[in-house]
Amino acid sequence: MKNVDRIIVHMDLDTFFVSVERLIDSRLKNKPVLVGGTSERGVVASCSYETRKMGVSSGMSMKMAKQLCPEAIVVRGDSAKYSYYSKIISEMVKEQVPLFEKTSIDEFYVDLSGMDHFFGSYKLASELRTKIIRETSLPISFGMSINKTVAKIATGEAKPNNQIDVKKGQEKTFIAPMLVQKIPMIGEKTAYNLNRMGVKYIKTLQEMPMKMMENAFGKQGIVMWQKANAIDNSPVVPHYERKSISTERTFERDSIDVKMIKNQLRAMVEQLCFELRRGDKLTSCVTVKIRYADFQTYSKQKYIPYSASDHTLTQYVMDIFDKLFERRLLIRLVGVRMSHLVGGGHQINMFEDSVELLKLYQAMDKMKIRFGQHKLQRASSLHTMSLSRSNPFSGEPPSIPAHRRV
Amino acid sequence: MKFVVNSKTLLQNLQTIGGVVVSKPILPILDNFLFGIKEGNLKITATDLETTITTELEVQADGNIHVAIPSKMLMETLRSLPDQPLTLDIDENNFTVEITSETGRYKLNGEPGEDFPKTPSHTADESLQIPAEVLEDSIAKTLFATSNDELRQNLTGVFFEIDENQLNFVATDANRLVRSQRLQIASSSTTSFIVPKKALTQLKSNLTATTGNVQMDYNQNNVFFSFDKVKIISRLIDEKYPDYNAVIPTDNPNKLTIDRSQFLQSVKRIAIYANKTTQQIRLKLAGSEMTLSAEDLDMSNEGTERLSVNYAGADIEIGFNARYLVDMLTNMTTSEVSLELSDPNKAGILLPSEQDENEHLLMLIMPMMLNKG
Q: What architecture (CATH level 2) is domain A1-174?
């Protein structure tokens, strides 16, 4: 695959959540719209281009966004709605192309290598885009190039609601004048470090020796250098394999109420365990995350025997939390992650598991699957909030907003 | 001080006890064998402080001495020498050991025997005579089921349970359990203790070469196994063994009888297609047919086998760890076995279809929970 000339298209729905809201309520058209949490602690999940002009960006706190753009209409997001439209579009893409990878709720890569013989790749991609716009009325942009990195950068340039074909051989020149943070893997922090080294534009990065990047950033440096030079052999992978499941929650108000925090953790474990069991999975590594009021974030993990039982994993999570929570400071956020997943059923322990308890889990899971996750809860987790989600093991990527991903 | 010993005899004796020596001991001197010579009797000791083994042999010596000799170098030397008499000359002042063979002289740096940890004194509250082959057999049947979990020390050994009717050997890692009951061995008093896995591994490998009885002495802290010229001393695990009898279900209405090797081979084949980590396989019993199946969703591997079996009971579908089943079936000897089940969430009991009049063997396996089919 590596040596063949590839044609990769990256498609991204413009301000997806906002677009969906506008589709449902046409009054929102051509007005500044913010989608995201409406509470004190809410963040902007998606913002219309009208608000972007005022300096709003996704991931920003809602409070700040409102200060920047007071006339904006704030809509509370509804992930079920977005998933629904996302699915419709996935189905349309699936019908039209040989190979595609959905990387999040609103973007995907399409591999059109070899299609030139039959259709003309650019024409095919353009038709697909027109079709999506015509049938769903949702604006979408795409970038086309020889690999994922350049295609994605191209989409960023094409937006809003447009398309770009980076001609073969032009990849390096195309990205050269851009800022380094346009490269997908380079975030704020890396960009800052690069700028301090005097590297502001991708062109500089291209001209640097690879060795130097390796010395400065290790393995990541090599990848960065390669991406800057338009080298990216990563394939388009059709199926999304969940490597871990996690959940986290920012409190309405920073808290030191350990009882409440522990109940929140309990609810999280309960939810994740249910998801594991529904997906016929077991975990062998649990991680607990704490973010204090000063934004210092700590996490700690523990390897454990394979399990998907609420009581076992709750115990581990509580133990880790007790070890991790050592600063006498208000807590802003807690999170739980379960990783090193493996498919299979729970190995029953003759001394620790009772038949009654196992049967209880089975009955609870059955009820949850039939009537919904929140119809049945532990009393201790009654007053906690948690997002209801779709099955994480369905092969679909997680439907969390783009800015949440690290 | 000098003594003469045959190289092969010495090597054989060292091999008997060498398994105890650990590669990176807490005390550097534990890397050594202790040679104690008293009136022509050589007593060699190896220990890791938990388990101690001693062996004795006659040598021609011109005096008495206690010296610790580096185990690895000595063993390597002996292994590479052809069978011949060796002279070991020990300097009583600085404890250097000089070995003289037909072809050469080798010098090793020994240490004073006084620095070697003292062997626990042999005091017995109780004693029992056990035929060597019985002991070996019961250890072999239970040892594999012990746990490796350092956090559950009590499960890392074999539980010896003695009363006026029988001697029970029990091992479990909380997922499976084996109980070997020896009906012909009994004691006037009731006792129980947990013997660590390592001592039993050593004991088992040394029992193959012996016949007759093994003398088992025990007190609060230690157990002593003596046979021929070998003595194995082990510290007991000072923990409470779980009440295993409570987990053995008594009412198992569904009973499968099957040829042991046929069952074992099927499980082995199906296990190839199971997830490598969980080793989960599925047994489905309906009428007189058993379906064994496994799938690895990540790799898209799948295997199914159907066997005609002798089954009496309700239809049932139950998941097991294939490795556990293989271990158990391998460690049974009868040509037929029976598997007794009650519920997909409850233990399965594996028994020889005919119990020996002197031994009752029971193996228990906890199922894996199966999610929808």
A: 2-Layer Sandwich (3.30)
- pLDDT, residue A391, reads 66
**Secondary structure E strands in B7-139:** 32-38, 41-47, 51-58, 60-61, 65-70, 85-90, 96-100, 105-109, 111-112, 126-131
Residue A394 contacts B where some CB pair is shorter than 8 Å: no
Contacts of B174 in chain A (CB under 8 A): 349-352
pLDDT of residue A405: 37
Residues A347 and A312: beta-carbon distance below 8 Å: no
Contact A287, A299 (CB under 8 A): yes
Percent of chain A at pLDDT exceeding 70:
92
Could you give the residue range(s) of every CATH 3.30.1490.100 domain in chain A? 244-390
Strand order in the sheet with B41-47: B111-112, B65-70, B32-38, B41-47, B51-58, B230-235, B222-227, B213-218, B126-131
Q: What does residue B147 show for φ and ψ, rounded to 5 degrees?
A: -90, 155
* pLDDT, mean over chain B: 93
Predicted structure pTM score: 0.72
Q: What is the ipTM of this complex?
A: 0.79
- The length of chain A is 406
Enumerate the domain spans of chain B.
2-115, 126-245, 249-365
Contact (CB<8Å) B364/A352: no
Place of tokens 């959905």: A102
For B33, the 3-state DSSP assignment is strand
Centre a 10 Å sphere on the Cβ of residue A277 and count the other Cβ atoms it contains.
23
What CATH class has B126-245? Answer: alpha beta
From the centroid of its chain, how far is CA A131? Answer: 26
Sorting pLDDT into bands at 50, 70 and 90, what band is A160? confident
Q: Which residues of B are less than 8 Å from A349 in CB distance?
A: 174-175, 366
| Closest B-chain CA to A278 | B371
Q: Do domains B2-115 and B249-365 have the same CATH topology?
A: yes
- The residue among B325, B349, B369, B370 with the most chain A CBs within 10 A of its CB, best to mutate, is B369
- Cβ pair B177:A350 closer than 8 A: yes
